[in-house]
Amino acid sequence: MSQGPWVVAVTGASGGIYALRLIDCLLAADQEVALSISRSGAAVLRHETGLDVSLDAFDAHRLWTRPDGRPWWTALHGPFAEGRSVPAEGRGALRYYDHRDFMAPIASGSHRTRGMVICPCSGGTLSGVAHGSCDNLIERAAEVHLKEGRTLVLVPRETPVSRGYLQNLVRAARGGAVVLPAMPAFYQGHASVHDLVDFIIARILDQFSIEHALSRRWGASP
After folding, report:
1. Residue 177: helix, strand or coil by DSSP?
2. Taking the model in full, what pTM does it have?
3. Burial class (CB in 10 A: 0-12, 13-18, 19+), 187
4. In this structure, what are the phi and psi dihedrals at residue 10, rounded to the nearest 5 degrees?
5. CA geometry: angle at 148 spanning 144 and 153, to 5°?
6. What letter does residue 86 receive in the DSSP assignment?
């Protein structure tokens, strides 16, 4: 019996590439994904990757293919474009929920989920989660995960940060969220942007106890 989906929310911080790679990896691992994207999240995806994702008439194909017909990764420079592939058809399952839809299953604690990640997490969404405002489905789903004691991972990407932003990070962490900033490490060496992105995705998957081979673990043989 399915234990439910992983909830993935995309909001308006820079770093939409992290969200796309995370969804790619979850589906490739035969996981279920419940996806919600804020309006600013869609705008950032469009600006950073060229993907035109419609929130009103969502088409999952547009998560992978630009309006010019090219896969999103071919628009990126350098070695990152090598080896990328759309998850094979039939592997995993992706279901989309509009960020305005409070009747969506993930708005209720009675709906089983395995965990949630907001990737990237904007400052506004962080504030909403920290203060329990529940102004949209993403914030409500985050509150559900906190109240139900399920894993909630926040992936902020901002620098520098204000005192209020820092206080919100602390408030969210004290409330039970895992704060996992998009801060790639360089200690294991990297050949491309691909490696830096995968470093963060590997840390997210570790929080979900999902096996992967995205990065070499410290102390492991080369």
Report:
1. coil
2. 0.90
3. exposed
4. -115, 120
5. 65
6. P
Sequence-separated (6 or more) residues with CB below 8 Å from residue 149? 176
Band of the pLDDT at 78, cuts 50, 70, 90?
very low
Measured distance between the N- and C-terminal CA atoms of the chain, rounded to whole angstroms: 38
148 neighbors 124 (Cβ within 8 angstroms): no
User: In the chain, where do the E strands start and end?
Assistant: 6-10, 32-37, 93-96, 115-121, 152-156, 178-179
Q: Which of 184, 117, 201, 129 is nearest to 154 (CA)?
A: 117
Q: Tokens 């990328």: give the residue.
A: 84
Cβ neighbour number for residue 56 with a 10 Å cutoff: 6
Q: How does pLDDT run across 136-167, given as a tens digit for each residue? A: 999 999 999 999 999 999 999 999 999 999 99
77: tokens are 């420079």
Residues 6+ apart with CB under 8 A from 94: 23, 27, 33, 35, 60
Q: What is the DSSP letter of 217?
A: P
The Cα 6–Cα 92 span in angstroms is: 11
**What's the alpha-carbon Rg for the chain, to the nearest Å?**
17
Give CA–CA dist 4/115, Å, rounded: 9
Arithmetic mean of pLDDT over the chain: 88
As a whole number of angstroms, the distance between CA 161 and CA 149 comes to 28
Least Cα distance to 8 among 195, 157, 141 occurs for 141
Helix intervals (H) in the chain: 16-28, 39-49, 123-131, 137-147, 163-174, 193-207
Residue 79: name the closest of 204, 157, 191 by CA: 191
